């Protein structure tokens, strides 16, 4: 029987050694070592987080804020290094989401099956 | 080099075969097969989720709601099978939190290190 913690550490190593993670590391360091790219990327991140927080709290997002977000998104999409960073982040996010689905399957089956019986 | 998906499926198996998961399965089925326990447990869950949603949305929680929640919590704590279920759920949650910390470490190190340099 495999041990949970051994398996988790093996998975951590697999992530760390994956192309997806290595590509992310390279793309992230490229942006962080370029001060103007770094500032643009962080402004994008801050804008996105502010809007997400507002949405989660059910607050209205003004036309001005939507316009500001659009401007920032357009700027980062035209910046080659940042666009690359966002692309590799998304690749790794897809993998992380897959992992999350795989390891929560036992719990989903347990809670799901009894719910079905009840319906 | 270990493959990410192989490692994730190994971890899923390890979770499924763990004592924590088997204990949860037994405790959950015991409650779900007892209609009055099932109803009490689901009422507890619903109350907790409502309060959590309100908190996340920054809405005020009335004294009446706090009182209702306290009553439901007291009832489930005195019900042996439900108390057992909550206990084993918490054990498995601790393990799941550990797993989550382990496998997100590469990302945390990457994003964390550059943030530190910037300060
Ligand atoms: Ca910042
Ligand atoms: Ca229900």
UniProtKB/TrEMBL annotation, chains A, B:
Similarity field: Belongs to the UPF0342 family.
Give the coiled coil ranges: 49-79
Listed name of the protein: UPF0342 protein ACFOUV_12110
Pfam families, sorted = Com_YlbF
Q: Which keywords describe this protein according to UniProt?
A: Coiled coil
Looking up InterPro entries in the UniProt record yields:
Com_YlbF, YheA/YmcA-like_dom_sf
């Amino acid at each position: 029987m495999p041990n949970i913690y051994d398996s988790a550490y093996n998975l951590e190593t697999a992530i760390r050694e994956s192309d997806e993670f290595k590509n992310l590391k390279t793309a992230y360091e490229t942006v962080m070592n370029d001060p103007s790219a770094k500032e643009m990327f962080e402004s994008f991140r801050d804008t996105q987080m502010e809007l997400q927080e507002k949405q989660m709290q059910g607050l209205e997002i003004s036309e001005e804020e939507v316009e500001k977000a659009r401007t920032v998104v357009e700027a980062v999409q035209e910046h080659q290094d940042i666009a690359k960073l966002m692309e590799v982040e998304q690749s790794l996010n897809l993998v992380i989401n897959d992992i999350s689905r795989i390891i929560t399957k036992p719990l989903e089956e347990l809670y799901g099956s009894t719910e079905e019986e009840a319906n």
